[in-house]
Amino acid sequence: MDRNNYNDFSQEADIENDGGRRGCGGVGVGVGVVDERNESNVSSYIQREAALTEVLLKSRVNNTSQIAIIGANVCPIESLDYEFVENEIFKQDWRSRRRVHIIQYLFLKWTLALLIGLSTGLVGFLNNLAVENIAGYKLLLIGNLMLNDKHYQAFAAFAGLNMILAICAAALCAFIAPAAAGSGIPEVKAYLNGVDGHSILAPSTLFVKIFGSIFGVSAGFVVGKEGPMVHTGACIANFLGQGGSRKYHLTWKWLRYFKNDRDRRDLITCGAAAGVAAAFRSPVGGVLFALEEAASWWRSALLWRTFFTTAVVAMVVRSLIEICRSGKCGLFGQGGLIMFDVNSADPSYNTPDLLAIMLIGVLGGIFGSLYNYLVDKVLRTYSIINERGPVFKVLLVITVSLLTSCCAFGLPWLIKCTSCPIGMEKECPTIGRFGKYRSFQCQPGYYNDLASIFLNTSDNAIRNLFSSTNEDEFKLSTLFIFFVAIYFLGIVTYGIAVPSGLFIPVILAGASYGRFVGRLLGSTLNLDVGLFALLGAASFLGGTMRMTVSLCIILLELTNDLLMLPLVMLVLLISKTVADSFNKGVYDQIVEMKGLPYMEAHAEPYMRQLVAGDVCSGPLITFSGVEKVSNILHALRMTGHNGFPVIDEPPFSDAPELCGLVLRSHLLVLLKGKKFAKNQVLTGSEFLRMFHAFDFAKPGSGKGLHLEDLDISDDEMEMYVDLHPVTNTSPYTVVETMSLAKASVLFRQLGLRHLCVVPKTPGVRNVVVLSVI
Amino acid sequence: MDRNNYNDFSQEADIENDGGRRGCGGVGVGVGVVDERNESNVSSYIQREAALTEVLLKSRVNNTSQIAIIGANVCPIESLDYEFVENEIFKQDWRSRRRVHIIQYLFLKWTLALLIGLSTGLVGFLNNLAVENIAGYKLLLIGNLMLNDKHYQAFAAFAGLNMILAICAAALCAFIAPAAAGSGIPEVKAYLNGVDGHSILAPSTLFVKIFGSIFGVSAGFVVGKEGPMVHTGACIANFLGQGGSRKYHLTWKWLRYFKNDRDRRDLITCGAAAGVAAAFRSPVGGVLFALEEAASWWRSALLWRTFFTTAVVAMVVRSLIEICRSGKCGLFGQGGLIMFDVNSADPSYNTPDLLAIMLIGVLGGIFGSLYNYLVDKVLRTYSIINERGPVFKVLLVITVSLLTSCCAFGLPWLIKCTSCPIGMEKECPTIGRFGKYRSFQCQPGYYNDLASIFLNTSDNAIRNLFSSTNEDEFKLSTLFIFFVAIYFLGIVTYGIAVPSGLFIPVILAGASYGRFVGRLLGSTLNLDVGLFALLGAASFLGGTMRMTVSLCIILLELTNDLLMLPLVMLVLLISKTVADSFNKGVYDQIVEMKGLPYMEAHAEPYMRQLVAGDVCSGPLITFSGVEKVSNILHALRMTGHNGFPVIDEPPFSDAPELCGLVLRSHLLVLLKGKKFAKNQVLTGSEFLRMFHAFDFAKPGSGKGLHLEDLDISDDEMEMYVDLHPVTNTSPYTVVETMSLAKASVLFRQLGLRHLCVVPKTPGVRNVVVLSVI
């Protein structure tokens, strides 16, 4: 409450009569200031509030009234607005819209979907190609040094190369685009919920995400490239939807059709789905991921377009892999994009199998919720370090890189060598040749099973863990050490300033304990250990991410084994249920912790006890239908509100009445146009000739007109401007006695940014605007 | 307009002042009366109107102003209401709800999902078992007679048995539950959109659907058991959700939690998904079907529960099949639930392959849209016959049965015999043994390829068509004749009074032309003809049903071959795009033709030019906060409205103001309770002690209190009743100048049944209720 009131989220007018209930709950949240009042807690649900320079949101984690400001995300956020602004301009445009425009629009829509698919597929493939080659040659070098018994040189080379790659990734992230750090899925999820964080989808973020991810994964961190691919897909969609970068004059006129939040949201949904499709070669999984995890609004037509995009991705990736088959792609053999072979025999299972599977499900739930808890704690600690500046970010990355190198290189020494199984000699490495196993410190003919998964690319490690050709491939101790190491490395790695996906660490840890359980109970079980590894991965994924159908499909598309479906479903059901009883999914947790004001689909129970009027505060700023320029400028300058009710008064109407809602961005365009009149007269028709709907199209985030762009002379200040043509005459309204729960459902279901609260008692003309900034 | 005004869909009051705009578009639609006025056309979109005894809806098919009344469906329909009725009773209940209630509720929710899964799985399995055995023994008898050259006896037995089975199915349908005819998917789709047709989900419908489907499919009709399974699943869900049948005193007290439209809708969504899962052994496909095709409202939590249900179905079906493996299930071998083996080698394709696949996609689109067009025409013709009475229905079924028998038995004579391929002798039938091929009129060692698909169960026929073991298995002429026959038999069969799914006819026809194209271009192609048959089936499914992701998954789960995914996607994309340019999907078409007032997610363009006030008509009936009993009874008797605005007047408020909305069903309970007062006083608190929220729970369709159940004396007529405790004080409202497009989006997105239209000008207290009956 000690901050300027510019971030009051709601406004209220009180022109003829004070209706009694108003003035409650002015909700300004200041840095470090804890507002214990119930109203503020309430309103943090219905509003998404941000000052123009800082995210000042109350953490909703556990009502401990902490202020969560994550270093990398002290950036302006803005809400998206999915409402049709039905003003005169819009209606004129609607009437004049010819068939040819509709065809242009449809053509563009599908072309964009195609382009998103093509680019995401290409980027996904190149990402894999780069990672497989960089990491591959690095590991080959170490392997050769080890075979020649140059152990210290090998470690130096390993740690050194890892650190160089890590520094590259961290530098990109810390200095160019801090928004590219982390998985990116929470940010995309928040965007699709209506929270537009600054530079979340900017071209610079795209650039850093692609290259940072390549360097980060190659640097041997326990991170995946899957989460970043989702973010990359969304960035590509945003980039294409904007028709390129305006900064570099790469825009395309036709794309003005897409200059609104609705179409942008659809494109980005397609992009996120394309990202998953490219990361896992899982087109259907991509669609379902977008549907289940990413998107907050969905419609059937979008299913269809998303499906098209992911189909294109699948085609592109497939053809590129086809080209690589001839061996032109270096170490990227069949490997790159994970596609695992599991035992494809029809699995028949007995009761001990089912019990073991249930155990895995329970373990997955427990490990998963603990993982989420620890990730949250670590992220909060890191955010303190990361806030100090880019250099500290890089230092943190170097520390974690060293720790990872030490673990990966040090732990395999604890393991005794295993002799190469008979008939599988070609899997054992010799100098200059890659096999499935790594010899590490062992003699020829022997291999180190821990090194085979630790000193390998993550895709190969997973493939080894899922493999069912050799049941005794991994010792129990190996699996145990690997699980513990990956579990904790995964936790400490997420949150450093490199693009880092969570899928791969989770799959690795899950597969290792799945295989552990499988081996432990080996004699009583029917199913082979490879399948248990798969089920372990499924259980841990379910326990951390809490997705169901999409995970199921992604795993099936990865393993190409539909007969596993019932078992995977069972495991996911158990692990999700167990984990849900402890905490939230990891992405939801990160969204919350980053202070992104995510709006849940359901109203909180206590909101049923309050009415919309209870969360309103004043003073309300309204405009007349024909308003003085100076008044408008003053209001824009004094408040951060993005919407203002317009009240028609005599002589323009018989009695004062709500005309509609006018948006700040539209006011700015209007003032920039300087179509002013000396007197208070209607100038609507002139105005309509002068402006076109596209002048009012919403530019990308942070690119609109600003107050400083206006240059209004003193004479003009005293003139009038007719607001009717830009006033949305159909704003959604609720009566002040409407329960808060229902009002919040309205906000969320219709994707609103503003909601007018109208009085219940006639004769009193108060209009209140609940809004999300 | 010549009908009583009882089906005016909207009401309007005009107490102090006539606002000018009112009185427009009184929308009564009478039998055979065409209302050419624009308003009525408009309002048919925003309203769903039905008289109490007849569906009197304007067909929206092609604006030719036809009245579509389908014989079997002249039944009352009612809208569902997904709004939380936030009245005093609800709030009291909400406050008193203890943790134990929530746990009870959750427990029940999941138990019900489990039960739905178990029962649907069981029913699906038994259905298959019965069909495979009845049809199997029938075909075995014919086969033996044919091998003994008793051709006439064979035909007589074939046609006779088919007819007996057909009559059984038709009699059940015509006399017991007419709503069980047809696929059932359109009705379930409409239900989930908010249209509750009478007896669509009744226990009698469930009974007839199960047995009618068994008889119908066994009778050799070109119908599937998949559509009916979806309907069966939905009926089972409804039955369980009601806690059994109240008629037979099989109810369970706890289930009162589920006595509202929201929970019922969720259960039925689960049921529909379980139906698909049981029909195709496709759990993920079931979830996606429910999401893409069936449901109009969706939320993440439901995905999770639906997934659980289908997982249970998959488990049940799997275990039952496991039991059958030992051969205890008669002719139900591995056969029953379709699960096809296609060539599982990694398909590599070249340009001619892709061109051929695109051709199949285009053909699928054209054939599909033509199919929909013809089905629509045939259904309209049949409805004239079916309207005449149950006997005519049975006669129509007999005619179609004879036609089918003649085709199935007659057409194979046109085909020359083929010699049994070397090495596949065991597939050729001898007396008493089943093989893949049918000998029909041929000598031992030869087979008739058309008979092999025509005189076979549909699952086996599809398996034959998809088979890739013998490329020359089917001659071009065979495939052509089969395609033409199935295409037209499929069209004339749908719409007769038996439960009839569309999936199987469409898959059969699609597979035959797919294989035809594959064989025709055989020499230039890489892929084998079995895969082309699969792609043909996909294309035709896409062309008729216009689903994408769910079809894709269902086909993949059927064939267990994920590597086909990109090709199936391509084919579906092409065929849907082509077909969409001609007409709507077959289910949407049937919904439309049956006069079920389905509400689309999107507003029609012209609705942007109108405002909510434009589609209002009068007179409005309102109640005071404390109203005279006689007034209420009069209003209930004179109108069919289901919601009435309550206006508080002095002395209960300072000025007249909208208090909320009261529902007809709640008024009936209130009047039944007879808690009246002599004077106009507030009796709310007494009232709350007397009633419990469950007294106001919404019973199943057609089971609520009726006006005739009330017994009010003349004295009581003059007394007053306090409506405040049952008034929903938070109805959604729009201002009268809100654009109609936005108002309709509100209706659909929030699942409303009533929407209050409030005046723009203060001082004028008109409240209009737009409603869907």
Topology (SSEs and partners):
2 copies of one chain form a homodimer.
Chain A: E1 10-12, H1 38-46, E2 77-79, H2 88-96, H3 99-147, H4 151-176, H5 185-193, E3 195-197, H6 203-218, H7 226-241, H8 261-280, H9 283-294, H10 300-324, H11 351-386, H12 390-410, E4 418-419, E5 446-447, H13 449-454, H14 458-466, H15 476-493, H16 503-520, H17 529-545, H18 549-559, H19 565-580, H20 586-593, E6 623-624, E7 626-628, H21 629-638, E8 643-648, E9 657-663, H22 664-673, H23 684-690, H24 714-717, E10 720-722, E11 733-735, H25 740-750, E12 754-758, E13 768-771
Parallel strand pairs in A: 6-8, 11-12
Antiparallel strand pairs in A: 1-13, 2-3, 4-5, 7-10, 8-9, 12-13
